[in-house]
Amino acid sequence: MAGNRIVAIRAIPAVSGFYADDQRAIKRGATQDGFAYDGEPVTEGFKRIREAGEALTVELELADGTYATGDCAAVQYSGAGGRDPFFRAEEYRPVVEGPVADALVGSNPAEFTPLADEIESLPAERSGGDRLHTAVRYGVSQALLDAAAKTRGVTKTDVIADAVGTEPATQPIPVFGQSGDDRRTNAEKMLLKRVGVLPHGLFNSVEKVGAEGERLIEYLEWLAVRTDELGSGASGDENTQSGVPEYRPRFHVDVYGILGEVFGPPYDRREVVEYFHRLADATAPYPLQVEGPMDAGSLSGQIEQMATLRDALAAADVPVDLVADEWCNTLDDVRAFVDAGAADVVQVKTPDLGGVQRSAEAVRYCDGTDVRAYLGGTCNETATSARACAHVALATDAAQVLAKPGMGFDEGYMLVTNEMRRALARREHSDSVARPTPETAAPTGDSDD
Q1: Catalytic choice (27, 150, 349, 404)
Q2: Domain(s) of CATH 3.20.20.120: residues in the chain
Q3: Is 27 one of the annotated active-site residues of the chain?
Q4: What is the pLDDT of residues 77-108, one digit of tens each?
Q5: What proportions of the chain, in percent to the nearest 5, are helix, strand and coil?
């Protein structure tokens, strides 16, 4: 609509889909007390080891009466591995309604890329860094994406694809389910729904992995057996994400650097390689990828140690893929891991990259390399941010996308899967009609939420 403008911006404190945890305190041996943790936090910004997650809804009011929304949210393990500090909604509300509003009010909502980039470049307010807190950039970019899609009369997938120059996927992206600590029951739920990648597992302590890594092996052996038992025929062969009858999910476990505590460097020695061989044997014939095998304490150290392990596994023909997570936070970090060949998969941890366009750029950077892009994020997000990320995954044809928010599995899987299916159906319906350009589009009142 010619003349449409952003006329007001409001920020509304909200709740997220999970909790924020002090990862350093947990790794140092904090014990669970029911759903909470005993002990004192050690990471700056935490008042206790586990706190309720917070979000901040950003609402853009447009001149035509349309509203667009996005949710500021931060990862579960805020402040860890080089990430921005704990996000408290009330602290950042005046930032959104002040400097962010000053930058955006009066702008044309159809112009997603320049507006999102402008937010990326705003100076820090209360975040202690060079730029706005990643959670703020994340939520504002979602609202701008929503506004652009409504103003142009297209899907959010189309807006992102136009922004980064990609051809969107024509089928749903494989969804990665996360189990939380209820790793057996939730894995069985995933198998019944024929999830493409599973189960995450939340192996975030030596106790869970085992003093010699034995508990992780036992769990993977159990998972392979249950996949054989429950995967065949579950939900009907016609409902597989790949569109073929055979159900062959990919196993993906996150160990939060704990294998580094079990074995220690160097990671090309025989003991370590043989352990990964045992992991591969435990999951056969299902492919396995291990996220965050160690935490070196710095970006350069993590890249060096991941590359060392990856080369050692390749030399020994051990079929386990490594996933970069710790210290792979920003777009520049993703580029560094890819350029160094330090991972088979990089997690694009969406809240840590800031604007959603940065996540799209990170996925695209993997094109033409031997590194796959996993569009991840955190259980500590919201339904709004999860739906926005589903469009980023489709626009960039990512290798997999996280089911989020929450740790109950079913809800996040439903949100992300259904959003992708709706977007694909809308795009298929409009294929025979010329899609409007930003300059000629009329707004639509439809909401993806």
Answers
A1: 349
A2: 175-425
A3: no
A4: 888 777 888 899 999 999 999 999 999 999 99
A5: 40, 15, 40
